[in-house]
Amino acid sequence: MMLPVSHSSSNATLRGYVVGVPSPSFAERRSRHRHVTVKAGAMSRFEEEEENRRSGEERRRRPRFLCLHGFRTSGDIMRQQVMRKWPAEVTARLDLVFADAPYPAEGKSDVEGMFPPPYYEWFQFDKKFVEYRNFGECLAYIEGLMIKDGPFDGLMGFSQGGILSAALPGLQARVGQYRYPGLALTRVPKVKYLVIMGAIKFQSPEVAEKAYGTKIECPALHFIGEADWLKSYSEALLESFADPFVIRHSKGHTVPRLGEFAVNYQKNLEVMLKFLQKIEDDISLDAAILDVKEKEVCLI
């Protein structure tokens, strides 16, 4: 991943690949609740049943993740990797949106010969990974994706996409005594969950202090490969999280298998399902609280 940096750049439009039926947008969900609130005083039996059905759907909705691919690959490549390597009992419980990075690859891709082009990169960096080019533009681009295709419950990232995913909650967090807005994703809801594969910390002291200065509290699932050349760096990243879920696999720097032929299949699958259950329980609780608040408004 540590490749020389060239000095050309280009812009790209937003691109995404959606797996499964997208969850209702935030505006749609809110409009449903507003509709119910207005009519709650004189509901027919049918309307009450419809309200209960919609509330149940909200509580059972699949968590929605924006997926950030690895360096010089693409959203479609990551989609193929995840859908081929993870069992349906996992992917069926997730609403995944795979997006392309904003910049065409400025050099050779490690997946040439395995996956066809085009290939993209999120930003450019030096060999020591301490200086970055187009980093601010990259953060703005991701925020644009989240506005366009969100809301999202969390981020899923591999390699360069995982580095970004792990750093964004800290960069998004409000700072200082007066809770000033964070440095990234200030126009979108808080990132609540993370899935991180083959990632490391930003090595720039300035970025690292802002991203990892305090323990990252949001639930996060980390994949660490025993044969990954970045393993020691991934272990260091893990220490920045308050209470992470961890899946260790025998492979290298890759999106790992969760299927029955993988090493420690059952143990790792149990960790994944426990993580998903945590998210689903949170979503159900949030929906129940929102229902109660909406109904309380109707009684005022």
UniProtKB/TrEMBL annotation:
InterPro entries attached to this UniProt entry: AB_hydrolase_fold (IPR029058), FSH-like_dom (IPR005645)
Domain (Serine hydrolase) ranges: 62-261
Annotated spans, Disordered: 39-59
SUPFAM superfamilies linked to this entry: alpha/beta-Hydrolases (SSF53474)
Protein origin, superkingdom: Eukaryota
PANTHER family: DIHYDROFOLATE REDUCTASE, OVARIAN CANCER GENE-2 PROTEIN-RELATED
Name this polypeptide is given: Serine hydrolase domain-containing protein
Organism this protein belongs to: Ananas comosus var. bracteatus (red pineapple)
